[in-house]
Amino acid sequence: MFKKCYRSAMTRLEGVLIIALIAVSVVAGYAWYMATMAPTVSARQTITIVDSAGRYVTVPWPVKRVVALTTDAAMTIVALGAKDVIVGITKYAASEPWAPNVTVVGSSFSPNIEAIVSVKPDIVITYVRWPKPEDLEEKLEPFGIKVVRLDLYKIETLFSEVKLLGLLLNRTEETEALINYWKGVYENITSRVSELAPENKVKVYFETYTDFKAVGPGSGWDQILRLAGGINIYADAPVTYPVVTSEDVINENPEVILKAVSTSKFDPYNATDDTPLKQIWESIVNRSGWNQIDAVKNGRVYIICAGLLHDSFGLVVELAYIAKLLYPSLFADLDPKELHRHFLEDNLGIPYAGIWIYPHE
Amino acid sequence: MSKRRVFVLMLLVLALPLIVFISMSVGVLPVSPLGLILASLSPNHEVNPVAWAVIWYLRLPRALMAVMAGAVLAMAGVVLQGSLRNPLVSPFTLGVSSGASFGAALAIVLGVGIVGMGAYLIMANAFVFALLATFITLGIARLRGMTAESVILAGIAVMYMFSAGVTLLQYVAREWELTELVYWLMGDLSKASWHRLRYTVLAVIVCIPLFKFAWDLNVLMMGDDAAKSLGTDPSMTRVACACLSALAVSIVVCMTGPIGFIGLMAPHLARLVVGSDHRFLMPTSALIGALLLSTADLVARTIMMPLELPVGVVTAFFGVPLFVHLLLRTRREIWR
Amino acid sequence: MVRDITVSYGSIRALDGVSVELESGKITSIVGPNGAGKTTLLKCINGIVRPSAGVVFLDGMDIRKIKQIKLARRMGHVPQLPPLHLPLTVFETVALGRRPYVSWVLSKKDIRTVEEAMKAVGIEHLSDRYFDELSGGERQKVLIAMALAQEPEVLLLDEPTSNLDIRHQLEILNLIRRLAREKNLTVVMAIHDLNLASRFSDIMIMLKDGRIFAIGSPREVLTPENIREVYGVEVTILTNPHLLVVPIGVVP
Predict the structure, then answer these.
(1) What is the ipTM, given to two decimal places?
(2) Would you call A219 an interface residue with chain B, using a CB distance cutoff of 8 Å?
(3) pLDDT tens readout for residues B28-71
(4) Partner residue facing C48 (CB), from B215, B219, B225
(5) What's this model's pTM, rounded to 2 decimal places?
(6) Inter-CA distances, A100 with A84, A237, A354, A361, B73, Å
(7) Cα A165 to chain center, whole Å?
(8) Which domains does chain A show, CATH number per domain?
């Protein structure tokens, strides 16, 4: 009985399949034809630049619509006073107070191509290394959308990248002002640090969000410490985030201890009460045997909140905070809070608030 | 096969193109194939190449990849469950997914790889290490006569080994590389493209010879000895099935990352529909696998629009309750 | 057909130099205590187990030279225990016996053969039931039907009556005897029930410690002396009308 049922179903199915196959082929051919027609060429001016990935990119000029796949890019554009240029933003920055309320398009690790296409940008800005060209440039090609790769999180290339960005957005004046201000601060700090004699340099133990996880070579924190003139006791660790032991830290006897606290544990911007930071501070200071460490004896243990300071010009603010903590006398005239205020209020357009360092004066 | 079964099977066959069509009609942009076709039929329409490009370059390859990858994973699952006589086996049992993860991690964290650049470095590495893991598993099992138990145990050992490697690489990784690796491990179809579909078709082609083993898999249910007296070589069957399915799954996984649960679930669902005769079970599993993955991807793309969930998350979160529900509802025990 | 087989499992010699000639149309039973090598001998005959020494011949040809599938068309094996779980219907299970003949589709002939095999064993009414739902006796019958579906010349049965009640035991053994005569099958069965063995077999082989202790007609083999020697049990033999072995006690 099953045979009969099966066989009759089969012959009917064959006929239907053949017809379906023909229909699908026709439709597919038509679709392919339609899709490969070139989009209409607009009569806009174009400019060819070299981005941080070392590629020549030709983009419409001036750039009026940008998708920022990175927080650094979004932040920098807002700092340049060009907030309304952003039409698509990375999910990591979407809920930030300074960010514009635009379509979320994924992130640099998983871009949502359709969302990007839907906001019709002139360019997309992302990191040099992520996502891979096969996953971004190639997919955007049929839509004629170009990608400009700028890191904007590395302090050594930050200023030249901002200059390029300013050129693309045709805001050269604002860019100059911005760069001059921050570059000034940066060079002020680095020049003073370069005059420090090696024996006067301060030994630092820097702990990140997880207890006993230090920072090693290749991490952003390590770089900041070096620029600030500190000697990271784990600067030559074999891995980027080494896990260290209590005894080893006591043995190294750092002069300053810095602990970074993540935003998920403590939101610095909206905070009014510093008790959680105080608790963390006390737990560090009370670690068994740590009362032997110079940093603890001299009260030079500080908590830093990562918050807004890890991107774009915030890096310079971060540098200022740390430089002042390490060498208060050398940087007596440096006011990191004022720099921070300038960054938040003048650059990003949000009021200066929150608790960022503990203990704070 | 009862009338009821044939009916359900027909439903499934019709459901597949329907799901594919729905996938192509849904997305951030309000573009659909139906809409475009209707528009192009009206006399004074404006051709909108962007809309066509979205369908052709973004949605169609992804929908096709979901269908093919789902079918491949399901075929591999059913073939391995049959040749290893164990309903808990999945296409990743031989170590394919942990091998691929390790290869991808090597490429992402250390930039070390066999061949290629950028995205292709990761793909090639994942593929090579997935195969390597399989060969190690089969090599160990061969020392113990290639019995079902030895293959499974060897696979578990290999899986632990490569997982440990991935963990080590995660520890050594820098911040951004770690994030990239985590994203890769989630498994998703967003990187589908016509270029990658070429490889996926290859994976499907590799699965076709597996049909030749349908009777052997049926007979293996009686045990190795009975199988031999019926003219089937159990270890030969196991090796062939393992190699072919590992090859096909490696191709898929190196492009999509490890997408779990489809290979495990589809065969069981197929058994509920057509029983355990592999001649019907295999194509039905493939069909159900394609349906499951297509539906999962559809949900992944739309549930938090415009954000996209990785498809592996959806297969687990939606697959598990569905599976448990079916488990509790079945009157007859299909498995022990 | 079997010549000088030696089989070793590790350091244990399961069979040592066993040679026997099997005749078609006759039922040969293999008896012996547990571990004497009955199952092993059976498995050697159809090639499931490869002997470390010695050769098995089928119609004068070394079975190692015959392709496995071809061999499966000529020799059927009914295992002692069915697999732990088998999610197939009875029809599907018996159809497995056609494996040596099919590549994908079950032809009309295949289906007819399956139906005939089921009818011969008396289970056609169970065709759509699931194997797992059957009783032990019914399962045994299904396995026999499966072997019959192979259309073999040689039928090997490993303890075919262990799980059956008296009625079924007689039914099955009568069936086997009828098939042996009608189809001129060569039947070899390993069986531990001496009475049934003597009643239904033409030739009996008694194994002890992997060697043939005695071979001949049941009356010749089943003597109190042999049984005492092989099993270590004191017995009386009655003839009423069939040979009946009555155990008296264990020899210390």
Answers:
(1) 0.85
(2) yes
(3) 888 888 777 777 777 666 667 788 888 888 899 999 999 999 99
(4) B225
(5) 0.86
(6) 7, 40, 21, 33, 42
(7) 16
(8) 3-170 (3.40.50.1980), 197-358 (3.40.50.1980)
